[in-house]
Amino acid sequence: MVTDATPSRLPLSSLRDCKALYDKVAQEASFSADTDRMLKSIFRQACASGMSPFDAKGLPRMAMSLETAESFAHFIDADRNIILAILLCDFYGESVSHKEIEDCCGADVAGMLRAIAQVVQYSAKRNLHNQDNFRGLMLSLADDIRVIIIMIVRDLVLMRRINNHPDQEWVANMAFEANVLYAQLAHRLGLYKIKGELEDLSLKYTNREIYKQIANKLNETKRSRDAYIEKFIAPVKQKLEEAGLTFSIKGRTKSISSIWAKMRKQKVDLDRIYDLFAIRVIIDTPPEKEKSDCWLAYSILTDMYTPNPARMRDWISIPKSNGYESLHATVMGPDSKWVEVQFRTRRMDLVAEKGLAAHWRYKGVKSDSTDQWMNNIRDILEAGEEDPMQLMKDMRLDIYTKEVYAFTPKGDLFKLPAGATVLDFAFYIHTNVGAHCTGAIVNGRHRKISHTIQSGDTVEILTSASQSPKSDWLNIVVSSKSRNKIRQKLNEDLQHRADLGKEELLRRAKNRKIDIDEATLMKLIKKEGYKYVNEFFADIADNKLDAGKIITAYQLATLPDDPVERTTAEDFELIRDDEDSYGEVLTIGEKSIKGLSYKFARCCNPIYGDKVFGFISSDGVVKIHKADCPNARNIRSRYPYRLIRVNWSGKAGSELPVQLRILGNDDIGIVSNITSIISKEPGANLRNINLDSNDGLFQGYLTVGVSDNAVLSSVIRKIKTVKGVKDVSRI
Questions:
Q1: HEC states along 388-403?
Q2: Alpha-helical regions (H) of 178-247
Q3: By C-alpha distance, which of 500, 557, 552, 564 is closest to 524?
Q4: What average pLDDT score do residues 624-637 get?
Q5: CA distances from 700 to 141, 406, 461, 671, 692 (A)
Q6: HEC states along 506-541?
């Protein structure tokens, strides 16, 4: 920052400069003679191996590492293990192995180096516009807060170094990342100086004109500004003390980046920023006097300086929804300059800084599940413990065991729940990708849809147009988001099949000149054992239910109820009805009684040779049903007293109609081949044909008149031999 005192930042280009900085860092970290010899040995080994002194962007490795170690010691702590990890991270895995580090420096240093290497590896493929997820990946891979702080300081040193770098596009990307990722992490950890400098440097590299304009103006007025703050505070302090208040008072000037943010938000020039000078008065008072003492201090201030009523904010009488309490006033100070003053008690300040309304939250930084954890870390840093890094050594980011982060081949990063599978990942990309997922290539290897994803994996989803969601997929995915999408797709598919099935049923009913009553159909569906109507119609579309048989069952269900008077088959008087008889081909009852009135039931269309039974209808006619008629079970259970034994007399009669269902390829001439076979079959006659064609297939129904089932069997057998016919069955 412009006014902060920071360690030397001169470019380190000579070995003498590096040695001087190394000696300083070694002294601050209290390196032993053995540690010093070990480090120098590793440095010499790296030089002897031909390791380049510059990284891929041309920056000096050793100088950067030494600057990072010095900055960490300056801002945070000169912890020996952390300083060692910083100095060795550029050599880890390249000129020195994990085991060598573990043997000479210990498991703690080796563990930090492994975590740093993981974060750096995936940093190269990050998505600049998805920094929330990359932050989660970084935290889940590191699982050691010390590593996160190291990465923050490394980024600060990088930002200081790239001012004149020739690759301006890369500089802009680094500036964006520093602002939205590392600055926010630093803010949450209470590393406010680092956060402010990162934001200022980010502004410098992305908008140099604005940065120079604000920086020059602040530098020009620094001395006068500091004097002005003292001039403003002195009389206020005296008046508050005379009123008997115990308090502390602070004055500050905003950072360059925060001033620029205010200028953009308020759409004003620098001279019109009201809170360029900000004063905070923190009052020590018991809870019962909090409001009165804050208002007393406020009245003293506004008696001394003219307030701007439009800028007055009372969050003491009515606190913000997030718990923030404070009384803000903007007054016209000496020389007609606006100054913002905030009044709050020690308790209110604690809530604002540590509780629900922490500064980083009410300033608009997006919160997440790390909030409480980050606050605990910040408490450790701010407590000023003698060795805070040791306290954080064993603190792990357990919250991130509940999440995994994975890349697409293009570098897009997705956050998923722990245990997420390839199928979960596919649905997170897009619903249609998930619906057609057949597997994936994970880190170059083929995996099934049930494969569990690990943080850092690169996942390429494989799809097929013929793939569709299955109900057992619900047992494969772990996220509610994926389950909801699968259920949605399953329901859409069920609805589509149900629509087709309903259309088929209504079309068949129309062909038979039957009007379907919705209420009667619903009763039939329930009777068939279906809980949901869509499943019933879907089964028709899937040919699990025969639409013709359903219509026949519907017809039977619509017949009028039998008379109340019960008549048994033995008591029934059979009457000859020549019009409805089909010849003397049946033996009905115990004796061979010829010339009786009977009809063949249309629900099953029995023919000579079928196993049959007789049902005495209410109009006095014996209805002849096949033994396996779809309505046989219902008839036998409801009217057992009206059944009568029926046998064929031993000779065929007239032709009887039979319905055949046929399925095949929609080829030229196939229909004529079928009709030719029927016409040439003795004892068979084609009465009706109804065919539908769709997507190269046809499905249809033939009504064939046959004299007996032997003729029918012959017809079916010959039709099956026709090229392109897939199936023929009797209805």
A1: HHHHHCCCCCHHHHHE
A2: 183-188, 192-206, 208-220, 222-242
A3: 557
A4: 85
A5: 63, 52, 41, 10, 6
A6: HHHHHHCCCCCCHHHHHHHHHHCCCCCHHHHHHHHH
What ranges in 61-191 are assigned the alpha helix state H? 61-75, 80-88, 98-105, 107-123, 131-142, 145-161, 168-177, 183-188
Amino acid type, 621: V
The one-character DSSP state at 275 is G
- Contact call for residues 431 and 415 (beta carbons, < 8 A): no
Q: Which amino acid is at 573?
A: E
Name the one residue in this structure whose structure tokens are 């030494």: 66
How many residues can be counted in the chain? Answer: 731
* CA angle centred on 615, ends 609 and 621, rounded to 5°: 100
- Please list, residue by residue across 451-472, b when 16 or more beta carbons sit within 10 angstroms of its beta carbon and e when fewer do: bebebbbbbbbbbeeeeebeee
Q: Are 436 and 468 in contact (CB under 8 A)?
A: yes
Tell me the one-letter amino acid at 78. Answer: A
Residue 160 φ then ψ, to 5°? -70, -30
The predicted-structure confidence for 341-395, as pLDDT tens digits, reads as follows 999 998 888 766 544 333 334 444 454 545 555 555 555 545 544 555 555 554 5
Structure tokens at 426: 């596919």
Mean pLDDT of the chain: 79
d(CA 551, CA 571): 33
What are the tens digits of pLDDT across the range 201-258?
Answer: 999 999 998 888 888 877 777 777 778 888 888 899 999 999 999 999 877 667 888 8
